[in-house]
Input
Amino acid sequence: MEGEEFYGAAYKGSRQFLQQDVKTANATGFGAAADDYMERGIDLNEQLIKNKPATYFFRMKGDAMKDAGIFDNDVLIIDRSLKLADGKIIVAVLNGELLVRRFHKNFSSAFLIPENSRYKNINLAEFSDFSLWGVVTYVIHQV
Amino acid sequence: MKAIVDCNNFYCSCERLFQPHLDKNPVVVLSNNDGCIISRSDEAKKLGIEMARPYFMAKPLIQQHQVAVFSSNYNLYGDLSWRVMETLRTMLGKKNVEVYSVDEAFVDLGIFPPEELQTIARQIRETVEQWTGIKVSVGVAPTKVLAKLANRLSKKNKHKTGCVLVLDTEEKITEALRKTPVGDIWGVGGQYAKKLKDLWCIYDALQLRNVSEEFARTHLGGVVGARLIRELKGITSKDMEDELVTKKMIATTRMFGSPVRDIVSIKEAVATYTSRAAEKLRRQHSAAKVISVFIVSKGENHHIDFRGATHGDSATLPSATSSTNELIKPAVDIIDRLFKEGTVYKKAGVVLSGLIPDDSIQGNLFRSDNKNCEKKLMDMIDNVNFSQRDDVLKFATSGTTRNWKMQQNELSGRYTTRWNELFEVH
Output
């Protein structure tokens, strides 16, 4: 099996669609010509979910990440298949609790950084049981 | 080579995914109605909590050790099961994955060179765990029966195996067979295991492998037994199967939350079960010719199935149908016949059989044909219920109060299937 297929993206979303799924203008007269230019429309799943079996939705509570544009009651989209990397906003498991913070790492230490000056940075050296739950990819916020 | 990928203590793992503080605590999950224990974490097993033990009997032990208890949350487990299977299908190709049950799948690894199997098996385990959060064990061997056996051994000693065991040489297979009691072989029931031990002094799988096919045919249930022996010898006799897409029979059976003694409640329950069964029927594009209904009174052994139930009856419909309303009427009529005043009931079930594809419904000279209208109505109900959830639209017979509904006192959220129950993080 090809390596690429082995680790290919799981979610093709509605990119796999049939000709019948394309809406038609349903006009009987001249308008029917527009049918040639009809498209399927925009599907949010396609943009927001790259790997469906690995994607989970959580609800944000509190304002710890408000300066990153994540507010109370927003919906977080989390992709578990992504790797931990410096600068990513993640859902961390710390002391058995799930926490949303920005992950920051340099050559000697690693931190969980809140995006709100009222909260403290968390130095991961002080914890033995830190693990990654998933990487936050999008936030859905009602304006 | 074939592999079986099996989720470790699946229901407990699903609950733990959203409660990481329970990662090292004992956890159990209860059956429908919080009746008995159906899933235990390794820690709970170590405490001596038994499988299928009634909850009230295990309660002292559970309280003493502060075991976390959950009602079964099938919406959550179903979604996570799909994620595990979808991950396998993505990694290995749809046609190489056979979903065997909610928490196990056979995988055909024939496309990989033998020297890579160990790596592939480990990659499967790691990827499923990373993507879905569910821990799995992987057993790899030349046949399904041997793969099952490998999987069982990989779970015995998780630290040593890393939940992966590949039986790719004769020595490894022999060793594994020696470590497996006959009763733990896939397809050998307790009865046969006892017979093998008592009559022929066959205790482990290695001894069983060495019997002749002729012996198996005579003493181990004919062709099934012979096939089992061949599988143990490493000769494929159970090949990959296509998923069972169309069921031959559809059943919805549940215990009542509390015992029921009035006919109205029972009718409501049966009407609701019928709606649920009819929905499943339409989902696989079938129509049913026969509807059977049974009720079980308190005091009867509740494990009995339809064949054993004392209060059961069925009706043959004038023509096959998938319409809820056409099915509810005969179902409720059956209850009128079965119900005895003064009896307390605790369970009811509806079984649809005589299934045919819904596009081949034969007409009947004596009934007016309004099939199309009905189909549209049913499609509409299914669509609304599917998008709004929780039976927004239902038939009036199903009632509005539901005193008979299941008890689920320790239910967790449906975190992956409902917008208003999403898991909350800080």
DSSP finds two helices and seven strands in chain A.
